[in-house]
């Protein structure tokens, strides 16, 4: 098995606010991320696909194709967007790294047809990230 | 593909510390041969980077596995304050008997953070320099034995 990783970047705005909680609770739990006007990050996404290299092409999947999938599914949806208001898949959720990574996993998994999606790692900053992978899959 | 999708949260912390690689169980000559310049009697230092991964349920109310303030406070207290601008050999009790190689530093950080009550520690990675990194995810065999 070979693991192939492609990295992309996108920039987006978000804010953390749960309408079911009081203003005070929101402020206490989410701190400055609760600023009502929002704030933004340069996100870095690493997508790892696992598979056996094709004996003819030597590729797990065509990187060009993966690049197009990531562009279409993630960049067009999220880049220079306000995640709370403009990404329907995040509607009703707090757009934390954990939740965005899960949305990205669900968007990408059915689209990766050569090899299989192994892991997504989403960095909100160099020091904060979330990863999604199949439980029991060996981590690469 | 079977198995549920697991989500982990990752966070990086930094500390700067001195260490000296020297084992009382070895002769001066053996120490020098094995550890080389890391055996310099006065010690030397690194800017360490600690990357931790934690798993747990993503709380629907907060979208979080664990509140970062709670996590940061815990790691700051248990690791950063304990190690930052310290001599690992002389200021940290755990390294009085064992050599503070970054393998052992990694395991000691894992031991300290495994007790974090709000999420499950999955893995600790310690970068001693940008070229040397060590990872520890617990002793799977021991864990399995504990379950049986």
Description:
By secondary structure, chain A is of the alpha+beta class. Chain A has a five-stranded mixed sheet. The model of chain A has no long low-confidence stretch (mean pLDDT about 95). Chain B has five helices and five strands, in the order E-H-E-H-E-H-H-E-E-H. The longest helix of chain B has 16 residues. Helix content of chain B is about 30%, strand content about 30%. Chain B has about 150 residues and is an alpha+beta fold. The interface between A and B is medium-sized, with 31 and 24 residues. Strand 5 of chain A pairs antiparallel with strand 1 of chain B, so a sheet runs across the interface.
Short summary of the structure?
The complex is a heterodimer of chains A (140) and B (148). By secondary structure, chain A is α+β, with helices and mostly antiparallel strands.
Could you outline the blueprint of secondary structure elements for this entry?
The complex is a heterodimer of chains A (140) and B (148).
Chain A: E1 2-14, H1 23-30, E2 39-51, H2 63-78, E3 81-82, H3 83-86, H4 97-108, E4 116-125, E5 128-134
Parallel strand pairs in A: 1-3
Antiparallel strand pairs in A: 1-2, 2-4, 4-5
Chain B: E1 5-19, H1 28-35, E2 44-55, H2 68-83, E3 86-87, H3 88-91, H4 102-113, E4 120-129, E5 132-136, H5 140-147
Parallel strand pairs in B: 1-3
Antiparallel strand pairs in B: 1-2, 2-4, 4-5
What sort of overall outline of chain A do the alpha carbons produce when their principal axes are compared?
A: elongated
Strand arrangement within the widest β-sheet of chain A reads 3-1-2-4-5
The profile of the biggest β sheet of chain B is: 5 strands, mixed
Which chain pair has the greatest contact?
A-B, 31 and 24 residues
Q: Are there runs of chain A of 5+ residues with pLDDT below 50, and where?
A: none
């Amino acid at each position: 098995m070979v693991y192939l990783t492609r990295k992309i970047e996108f920039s987006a705005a978000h804010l953390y606010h749960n309408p079911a909680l009081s203003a005070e609770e929101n402020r206490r739990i989410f701190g400055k991320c609760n600023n009502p006007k929002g704030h933004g990050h340069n996100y870095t996404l690493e997508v790892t696909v696992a598979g056996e290299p094709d004996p003819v092409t030597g590729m797990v999947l065509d990187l060009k194709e993966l690049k197009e999938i990531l562009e279409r599914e993630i960049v067009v949806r999220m880049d220079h967007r306000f995640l709370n208001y403009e990404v329907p898949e995040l509607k009703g959720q707090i757009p934390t790294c954990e939740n965005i990574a899960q949305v990205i996993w669900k968007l990408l998994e059915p689209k990766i047809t050569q090899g299989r999606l192994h892991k997504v790692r989403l960095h909100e900053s160099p020091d904060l990230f979330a990863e999604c992978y199949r439980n029991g899959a060996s981590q690469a | 593909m079977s198995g549920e999708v697991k989500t982990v949260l990752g966070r990086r912390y930094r500390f700067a510390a001195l260490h000296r690689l020297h084992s009382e169980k070895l002769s001066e000559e053996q120490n020098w041969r094995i550890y080389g310049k890391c055996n310099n009697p006065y010690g030397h230092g690194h800017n360490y980077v600690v990357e931790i991964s934690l798993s747990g349920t993503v709380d629907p109310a907060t979208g979080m596995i664990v509140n970062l303030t709670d996590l940061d406070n815990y790691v700051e207290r248990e690791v950063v304050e304990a190690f930052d601008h310290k001599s690992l050999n002389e200021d940290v009790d755990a390294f009085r008997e064992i050599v503070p190689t970054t393998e052992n530093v990694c395991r000691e950080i894992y031991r300290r953070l495994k007790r974090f009550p709000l999420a499950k520690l999955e893995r600790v990675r310690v970068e001693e320099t940008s070229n040397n990194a060590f990872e520890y995810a617990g002793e799977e065999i021991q864990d399995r034995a504990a379950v049986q």
